Structure formats: structure tokens, C-alpha cells
TrEMBL record:
The chain crosses the membrane at residues 35-56. This is glucan endo-1,3-beta-D-glucosidase. GO terms for molecular function: glucan endo-1,3-beta-D-glucosidase activity. GO terms for biological process: carbohydrate metabolic process. Residues 382-404 are annotated as: Disordered. It is found in: Secreted. Keywords: Disulfide bond, Glycosidase, Hydrolase, Membrane, Secreted, Signal, Transmembrane, Transmembrane helix. Residues 406-490 form the X8 domain. It holds the Pfam family X8. GO terms for cellular component: extracellular region. It catalyses: Hydrolysis of (1->3)-beta-D-glucosidic linkages in (1->3)-beta-D-glucans. SUPFAM superfamilies: (Trans)glycosidases (SSF51445).
Length: 495
């Protein structure tokens, strides 16, 4: 039976799912943490999903993060239509993009809008700036656009910018006062978002403590949240926990798969997944600050990369699907955590789309649940028509690339509309689809299935022959049988 007693070491903490350019420079922090505390810094799990639905309890929902560091995103109106076709109930923006906010009007979706770190000084020093921000970004759209929360900054304390940190609470108060002046106090909440690096201790969860260097400001933040009944927002990512400790038992613990558990030496509680342990460490840290048991915790970001560089372990479609699916199932169960039993936690999955302009390793650009063409990267039961839970999957490390010739083809009985979507997506990524055009060697038979098969295989062969290049929302499979016919040659071969 594993415990939380693990050695301390130093390493870079990488805030992988951040989506605002204002704090990228502060994302790398060289800090000493126990291994378990690193695991806490970012967090995901894995129960292959039920679908996203509202619960009677207002805390029970699944939302998604809508980042915009990309040059290939669909128009906001298309995204709004996509969201309406899913059971996603809320969405978090990192800004207050008017086109997106307007596109979500009368959609029934709850909306979180964000204030950039760079705007905090002006808001802190001038109440009129806060009033103007509310007049510009909230009042014109509410209540048609169901804005629920304004986040003032993202991971401000982790930036280690003492001047910015000192201005956080004044900015939050001025924004709250402006919300109140608009007669929206209690309807639209105000908070800020933290990384797990605000904890100096989290091993075991019962000993969770806020880092002393942040304690004064953090206490003021939490007092503000208590006063206004706003949530404490945190960004946990177990994905990076596994990368720092790539053992099978760590992966199972992070993905919420069967494992031997880890015992909290402080209270004897046995934890079976990283998510619960992370949240309880935060709960312990807040409780240690004072009487803040009524301040709810909200997960502002969590996710799992479905693709990564060769040195990024655990990046696979299977693990991403398992993590997000198991997380959803755990939240829907309403079991809660050992220190917060019997209730779910508001959770926003990172992310709706990949953001192809984000710097860093490949994983940074590989968290999206949907492709820009609006098809699923992988299926976790988001569609309103996907209401059958799938069987939990076993955690996997990335499959090796095949060494024998293989081809990527559609699975049997895939409907034409899905095949057409696959065809459009593949040909839209720069591959040569000339052979399936009229007069081409592969034009006949002139069917969607035949044309999609050629395009999907060429996409797979052209993009590196990785397993995730032959997924197409679980509608494709690899085969060792050469599908070439007559003069139509399907590219293939060993890597």
C-alpha cells in the first residue's frame, strides 16, 4: 500500500493548459516540491464517460475552456452551434470576446469571462476603469448571454510578480463594486484562478498549506470570496504528474483506474485517485487559513494531451479519452472527495479546441476535444446523441509506430456524413486529394466511402504514421491488407 511519503526534488512546473499570453513568461517556475506535490500541480483522471448533463445540484456540471491562441478556429457562430449539439453546460473564456459572447446568447450555456493579467494594474488603481470594463464587457450582453463569473487574472501568484500580486485583490474589489453598481451583485460572481503552485505543502492532502510567500494575499483573496460567495478556482493537471513519475501505478492513480491507493498519514484516509487528493490538499490549505469551509472549490482547468513529442510519456488518444471520461463519471457520481463528500465540483475541461499557436512541446497544442472542422478528436460522450456510457479503458502508453506496411481505413458501417467529415478534414490539411477527383486514378468507385478511405489513409501516411493520425473520432482502423486496386495505389509502407 503506497503512502504519500516521497522525496523532495526540484523541477520545472509547466502550466500546460494556460491559454493567455499575458503570463506565458511566468509559466516556468523552478521550485522544490515533493513528487506528490508535483502530481498535484496539474490534474486529470479517467472514467470513460457518461455524457455531460445538468444535475439538480448547481455544482454538478461539466464545462470546457475555449482558448483562442490559434489561427484556424471556426467562427464563433459555428462553435455556438457545436456546443448546442452537445451536453456541455458551461464554457470558460480567457477574455471577453464580444463575438463569442454574443454568439452564445440564448444558448442556455453558462459563461465565464476573463480579465487579462495585464489589465489588473489599471483596474486596481482606478474604480472608473473597472466600471468601464463592466459597461463594455458585461452590461451589453447580460442576461441574454448567461455570464456567471468574471475571473480577474490567471495564475497571478504563480507569476511571482510581486507588484502584480499586490494589485490582485484591489482589482477584484473594484470589479465587484462595478458589478454591484450594475445591479448584478450575487448574479455575476468575481474570482481569480490559481495554479497548484500556490501550495507549499500537499503531502499528504491533510497537510495542504498555502505557500507562506502568498499567505497574506491569499487570505485576502479567500476573505473576498467568502464575503461574495464566489468560488476558489484552481488548475490541477495530473497529466504532468505522470510525466514526472512514469510508472504504471502512477498512471492508474492519475487516470482514476484501479490501483492500490495512497494513504494519508495524517488522517488515515485512503485516496484512490489524484483528483480527489489534489482537491483535498487545496481544501486543507484553505481551511488552515481560517474559517473558509464554506468557500467552494472550482476546477478552472484540467485535461490530458492526446498527442506529444517522443519524450512526452502518456500522450495518447486512449489516455486522454480515459482521463476525461473517468473524470466525468466521477463528477457525475456525486461521491465527492473524502474531505468534501456527497457533492460534485464545478469542473472545466481543457480544452474545446487545440490552440496551434501556443509555444512549447507538442502536447501544448494537443488538448482539444474537437478539431477546427467541428469533428471530435476522440469521443467522450459529449454528443447529445451519445448517451451510452462506454467501458472504462486501461491506461496506455503511446503505441509504437508499426514497422510492417499498414494502411488507415474507415471502420465498417460508418455513416456517410461522418465519412464526408473525415474526407473534408483530411483533404483540408494539405494532402494531395487529386487522385479522388474526376479523372483521377482513385475517383471510381465514386462513393463517399471510397474517397474517404483514400484521403484518410493519405492523411495518416503523410503526418507520420502515428496511431493518433488514424483515429478520426474512433471511425478508423489500421490494417495490414493493402487496399490498392487497379490503377489506384494507396500509399503505405514501413516507417
Amino acid at each position: 500500500m503506497a503512502s504519500f511519503s516521497l522525496p523532495f526534488f526540484s523541477l520545472f512546473l509547466f502550466a500546460a493548459a494556460s491559454s493567455t499570453v499575458f503570463y506565458i513568461a511566468g509559466r516556468f517556475l523552478l521550485l522544490p516540491f515533493s513528487l506528490f506535490h508535483l502530481l498535484f500541480h496539474f490534474s486529470p483522471f479517467i472514467f470513460t464517460p457518461f455524457f455531460f448533463l445538468f444535475f439538480a445540484d448547481s455544482q454538478s456540471f461539466i464545462g470546457v475552456n475555449y482558448g483562442q491562441l490559434s489561427d484556424n478556429l471556426p467562427p464563433p457562430s459555428s462553435t455556438a452551434n457545436l456546443l448546442r449539439s452537445t451536453s456541455i453546460s458551461k464554457i470558460r473564456l480567457y477574455n471577453a470576446d464580444p463575438l463569442i459572447i454574443k454568439s452564445l446568447a440564448n444558448s442556455g450555456l453558462g459563461i465565464v469571462i476573463g480579465i487579462a493579467n495585464g489589465d489588473i494594474p489599471a483596474l486596481a488603481s482606478n474604480p472608473n476603469s473597472a466600471a468601464q470594463w463592466i459597461n463594455t464587457n458585461l452590461n451589453p450582453y447580460y442576461p441574454a448571454s448567461n455570464i456567471l463569473l468574471i475571473t480577474v487574472g490567471n495564475e497571478v501568484m504563480s507569476s511571482m510578480d510581486q507588484n502584480l500580486i499586490s494589485q490582485l485583490v484591489p482589482a477584484m474589489r473594484n470589479v465587484q463594486n462595478a458589478v454591484n453598481a450594475a445591479s448584478l451583485g450575487g448574479k455575476v460572481k468575481v474570482s481569480t484562478v490559481h495554479s497548484m503552485a500556490v501550495l507549499s505543502q500537499s503531502d499528504p492532502p491533510s497537510s495542504g498549506r498555502i505557500n507562506p510567500m502568498f499567505e497574506t494575499t491569499m487570505k485576502a483573496v479567500v476573505e473576498f470570496l467568502k464575503e461574495n460567495e464566489s468560488p476558489f478556482a484552481i488548475n490541477p493537471y495530473p497529466f504532468f504528474a505522470y510525466q514526472s513519475d512514469p510508472r504504471d501505478e502512477t498512471l492508474a492513480f492519475c487516470l482514476f483506474q484501479p490501483n492500490s491507493g495512497r494513504v494519508d498519514s495524517g488522517n488515515g484516509i485512503k485516496y484512490m485517485n489524484m483528483f480527489d487528493a489534489q482537491l483535498d490538499a487545496v481544501r486543507s490549505g484553505l481551511n488552515a487559513l481560517g474559517d473558509f469551509k464554506d468557500v467552494e472549490i472550482m476546477v478552472a482547468e484540467t485535461g490530458w494531451a492526446y498527442r506529444g513529442d517522443s519524450n512526452e510519456v502518456g500522450t495518447s488518444v486512449e489516455n486522454a479519452r480515459a482521463y476525461n471520461g473517468n473524470l466525468i463519471a466521477h463528477l457525475r457520481s456525486m461521491v465527492g472527495t473524502p474531505l468534501m463528500p456527497g457533492k460534485s465540483v464545478d469542473t472545466y475541461i481543457f480544452a474545446l479546441y487545440d490552440e496551434n499557436l501556443k509555444p512549447g512541446p507538442t502536447s501544448e497544442r494537443s488538448f482539444g476535444l474537437f478539431y477546427p472542422n467541428l469533428t471530435m478528436t476522440y469521443d467522450v460522450g459529449l454528443s447529445k446523441n451519445s448517451q451510452t456510457p462506454t467501458t472504462p479503458t486501461t491506461p496506455t502508453t503511446p503505441s509504437p509506430k508499426p514497422t510492417a506496411p499498414v494502411w488507415c481505413l474507415p471502420k465498417a458501417d460508418i455513416p456517410d456524413d461522418q465519412l464526408q467529415s473525415n474526407l473534408d478534414y483530411a483533404c483540408g490539411h494539405g494532402i494531395d486529394c487529386g487522385p479522388i477527383q474526376p479523372g483521377g486514378a482513385c475517383f471510381e468507385p465514386n462513393t463517399v466511402k471510397s474517397h474517404a478511405a483514400y484521403a484518410m489513409n493519405l492523411y495518416y501516411q503523410s503526418l507520420g504514421k502515428n496511431p493518433w493520425n488514424c483515429d478520426f473520432s474512433q471511425t478508423a482502423t489500421l490494417t495490414s491488407t493493402n487496399p490498392s486496386y487497379n490503377a489506384c495505389t494507396y500509399p503505405g509502407g514501413s516507417t
